[in-house]
């Protein structure tokens, strides 16, 4: 080989080395961008701040006239406040009371512990808490354990269902103790982007105007192709929607009604996981109850899924407030997992009823139920979780000046929740194995199940607690007024 040929070869190798180097740099850059997008776009900063649920957080609500806020709370009108979150001040945050039954019952009983909502862009365009524009502070109404909602969202997350983030917060008002609340991420833009990416779909919170109406749209029944037939869905859209958005959702409900090609219209696997948790926790103030509400509906590319919301009445306690209440724990804790609502309700809940008519989906639902039990309730994880969480919140419950219950009643509720959850797991396991009836028809033929007679579900929280809470809450209200 001549010297010239050798030099040419060396030049080729040199150019090749440079190209390889450039390629490696580009690959690393792409990887870095992907890593950033996957680990930052999906994990906004607020996730690891307020919603680090391994510790207690603090919020001081600095309000010019708390007494006026309290007087006007039932109207759910916003007032400006400064929210000092874990020591960091956020001025001009919108603050209002929130709730449905809980709000009205607090008002009717002349109490003052409302659930609250903080909106960071109410008065400041683009305002947010590290990327989150709104979150709520749940008062644990009718939940003496302070744990029911937190536990259900934990179960949903473990089962891979998109659920709101939550964490415990000790709230003060103008520096004066107000109580222990549960901060909950409101399902809106930040929630959608965190769970579904920046190109997310549409989100709805279907709700009824009157329980005396049929409310077929809340039940997710196909009515016709006219968007005006679905006011309880489209009037409660969380984002702006178009006629095309409406048409996609209606088409999905139409496909659901046929029972065919369901996976073209329903995120079947995710929905089955949702129902496994929903049925386990015995929450009938929900899609599977007579009200049919308390859920979010997500639609993307013509495919719908159901997302969790509002669990202070889970674990059988909604039944205690019915007109003809079911109070027998043997009935409630052994409630059939395959027909988790009465026949009339069940027939009118197509998202559950139609999916369960498909043998493959039915088997998959059972498999997810088995996973829920085996991965959390039958290996000691639940009891460890309960001990750790209740120990973390106990000192704050003990000093909570607006609590709906005494500290002793709280301790009793924690133990009752432990019993209820483990007995429910035992009953569900027996139903999966065929030892206990899993439908109402089987129950009529063979009324057996786990013995739950030692449980008093009223110990989880009862409306009778409200009268005893009035003197505590009046004193807390006076303390704040005195500090103004």
Short summary:
Helix content is 44%, strand content 14%. The chain has 484 residues and is an alpha+beta fold. Helix 12 (359-377) crosses helix 14 and helix 13 (381-398) packs antiparallel against helix 14 (407-433).
List the helices and strands and how they pair.
Layout: H1 3-41, E1 57-62, H2 66-72, E2 79-85, E3 88-98, H3 101-108, E4 115-119, E5 134-138, H4 148-158, E6 166-173, E7 176-185, H5 189-196, E8 202-204, H6 231-234, H7 243-258, H8 268-280, E9 295-300, E10 303-308, H9 329-333, H10 343-347, H11 350-356, H12 359-377, H13 381-398, H14 407-433, H15 440-445, H16 465-483
Parallel strand pairs: 1-6
Antiparallel strand pairs: 1-2, 2-3, 3-4, 4-5, 5-7, 6-7, 8-9, 9-10
Key features of this structure:
484 residues, alpha+beta, seven-stranded mixed barrel, 44% helix
Tell me about this structure.
With 484 residues, the chain is an alpha+beta fold. It is 44% helix and 14% strand. It has 16 helices and ten strands. A hairpin with a 2-residue loop joins strand 6 and strand 7. Helix 8 crosses helix 12, helix 12 packs across helix 14 and helix 13 runs antiparallel to helix 14. The chain is globular. It starts with a helix and ends with a helix. 42% of the residues are buried. The N terminus is likely disordered.
Overall morphology: globular
Overall pLDDT score: 91
Distance between the termini: 95 Å
What's the total number of strands? 10
Helix count? Answer: 16
Major sheet size, sense and barrel closure: 7 strands, mixed, barrel
Unreliable stretches, pLDDT < 50, 5 or more residues?
3-41
């Amino acid at each position: 080989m001549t010297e010239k040929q050798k030099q040419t070869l060396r030049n080729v190798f040199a150019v090749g080395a440079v190209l390889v180097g450039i390629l490696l740099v580009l690959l690393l850059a792409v990887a870095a961008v992907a890593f950033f997008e996957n680990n930052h776009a999906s994990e906004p900063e607020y996730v690891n701040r307020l919603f680090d649920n391994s510790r207690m957080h603090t919020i001081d609500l600095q309000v010019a006239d708390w007494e006026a806020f309290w007087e006007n709370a039932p109207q759910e009108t916003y007032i400006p406040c400064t929210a000092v979150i874990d020591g960091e001040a956020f001025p001009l945050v919108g603050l209002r009371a929130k709730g449905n039954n809980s709000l009205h019952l607090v008002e009717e009983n002349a109490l003052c512990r409302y659930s609250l909502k903080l909106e960071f862009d109410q008065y400041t365009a683009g305002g947010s808490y590290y990327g989150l524009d709104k979150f709520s502070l749940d008062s644990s109404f009718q939940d003496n354990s302070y744990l029911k909602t937190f536990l259900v969202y934990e179960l949903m997350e473990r089962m891979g269902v998109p659920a709101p983030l939550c964490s415990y917060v000790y709230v003060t008002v103008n520096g004066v103790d107000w109580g222990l609340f549960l901060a909950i991420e409101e399902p809106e833009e930040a929630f959608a982007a965190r769970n579904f990416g920046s190109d997310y779909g549409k989100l709805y919170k279907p709700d009824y105007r009157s329980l005396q109406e049929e409310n077929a749209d809340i039940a997710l029944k196909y009515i016709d192709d006219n968007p005006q037939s679905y006011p309880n869905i489209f009037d409660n859209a969380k984002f702006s929607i178009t006629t095309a958005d409406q048409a996609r959702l209606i088409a999905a409900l139409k496909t659901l009604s046929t029972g065919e090609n369901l996976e073209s219209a329903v995120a079947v696997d995710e929905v089955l996981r949702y129902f496994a948790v929903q049925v386990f926790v015995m929450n009938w103030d929900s899609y599977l109850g007579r009200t049919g509400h308390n859920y979010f509906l997500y639609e993307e590319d013509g495919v719908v899924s159901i997302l969790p919301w509002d669990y202070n009445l889970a674990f059988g306690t909604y039944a205690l407030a019915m007109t003809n209440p079911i109070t027998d724990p043997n009935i409630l804790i052994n409630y059939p997992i395959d027909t988790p609502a009465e026949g009339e309700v069940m027939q009118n809940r197509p998202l559950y009823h139609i999916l369960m008519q498909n043998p493959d989906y039915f088997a998959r639902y059972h498999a997810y139920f088995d996973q829920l039990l085996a991965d959390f309730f039958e290996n000691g994880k639940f009891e460890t979780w309960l001990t750790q969480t209740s120990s973390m919140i106990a000192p704050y419950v003990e000093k909570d000046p607006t609590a709906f219950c005494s500290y002793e009643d709280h301790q009793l509720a924690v133990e009752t929740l432990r019993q209820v959850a483990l007995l429910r797991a035992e009953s569900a396991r027996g139903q999966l194995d065929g030892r206990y009836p899993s439908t109402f028809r089987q129950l009529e033929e063979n009324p057996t199940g786990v013995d739950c007679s030692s449980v008093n579900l009223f110990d989880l929280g009862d409306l009778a607690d409200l009268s005893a809470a009035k003197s505590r809450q009046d004193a807390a209200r006076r303390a704040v007024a005195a500090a103004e």
